[in-house]
Amino acid sequence: MNPFDLSGRTALVTGANTGLGQAIAVGLAEAGADIVAVGRSAPSETAQRVESAGRRLHAIAADLSSIAPVSEIVAQAVQFAGAVDILINNAGIIRRNDSLDFTEQDWDAVIDTNLKSAFFLSQAVARTWVDGGRGGKIINICSMLSFQGGIRVPSYTASKSGLAGLTRLLACEWAGMGINVNGIAPGYFATNNTEALRADETRNRDILARIPAGRWGDPSDLAGAAVFLSSDAAAYVHGTVLAVDGGWLAR
Fold first, then answer.
1. Which of 36, 94, 120, 246 is deepest in the core (most CB within 10 A)?
2. What is the tens place of the pLDDT at every residue in 28-45?
3. Taking the domains of the chain in order of start, what are their residue ranges?
4. What is the arrangement of strands in the sheet containing 34-39, beginning at the earlier edge strand?
5. What's the CA gap between 137 and 152, in Å, rounded?
6. Quick check: 129 and 174 in contact, CB under 8 A?
7. What are phi and psi of 36, to 5 degrees?
8. Where are the alpha helices (H) located in 15-116, listed in sequence order?
9. pLDDT band at 132, cuts 50/70/90?
């Protein structure tokens, strides 16, 4: 038996329409999982790629800037698949400004999307598992700024540091119930969120100089880590945050 096989399982992936979320959804589908894709826009390209892998995708339009849609997301996912087996908390936004000038609006927007919604979606999915007497897998998409400070992104750093802490707390509470809660901390990946960094010649050069692998990550580089943490191969892995960073933290 292949411990990495996800056949017969369903993964709920937030922010699955582009970038890292799309790559994770496709990777899980290639390992055998059906996908419930949650996002503000239609995941048309993701659906094509999931279906090309021979799996089903159900799209749910929702804005996770508040927790209002959480219960409906879980209800729709369960109606589609019978049960959710894997939750990937990937939806996230970023706001950039000097900390001296940072606004409450930009603080709240990022914290609400990146941290608050991730907690309450985890809670809602975990309740279905506990009520059903079964376990499941939760993977929180953290960041290098779960470990480091960064600059000009105070609410993003706070949210991703909080998400790493939440990963450990939920693991402590839920591991005994058969629920694995872990995180993945992507390094510097070529996505919409990092477009401003890559367009800044000085910042781009400085970032590349510190990455031992010598390149920005491609979203597909995350797929293997997501499949591992979603699979039976990670049955005894609880509360870890796995860095997928080209060696950034090792330097």
1. 36
2. 999 999 999 999 999 999
3. 10-243
4. 57-61, 34-39, 10-14, 86-89, 136-141, 179-186, 241-244
5. 33
6. no
7. -105, 115
8. 19-30, 44-52, 70-81, 104-111
9. very high
Tell which residue, 11, 92, 31, has the closest CA to residue 233. Answer: 31
Superfamily of segment(s) 10-243: NAD(P)-binding Rossmann-like Domain (3.40.50.720)
Interval 134-183: pLDDT, tens: 999 999 999 999 999 999 999 999 999 999 999 999 999 999 999 999 99
Give yes or no for a contact between 18 and 195, defined as CB atoms under 8 angstroms apart. Answer: no
C-beta of residue 207 within 8 angstroms of C-beta of residue 188: yes
Q: What are 56-86's pLDDT values in tens digits? A: 999 999 999 999 999 999 999 999 999 999 9
Residue with tokens 């960073």: 245
Backbone angles phi, psi at 98, to 5 degrees: -60, 145
Cβ–Cβ under 8 Å, residues 16 and 25: yes
**pLDDT for position 10:** 98
Catalytic positions are: 156
DSSP designation for 83: S
Burial class, 30, CB count within 10 angstroms (exposed 0-12 / middle 13-18 / buried 19+): middle
pTM over 0.90, yes/no:
yes
Whether the Cβ atoms of residue 76 and residue 128 lie closer than 8 Å to each other: no
Count the residues in the chain: 251
Q: Please work out, in degrees rounded to the nearest 5, the angle formed at the alpha carbon of residue 105 by the alpha carbons of 101 and 106.
A: 65
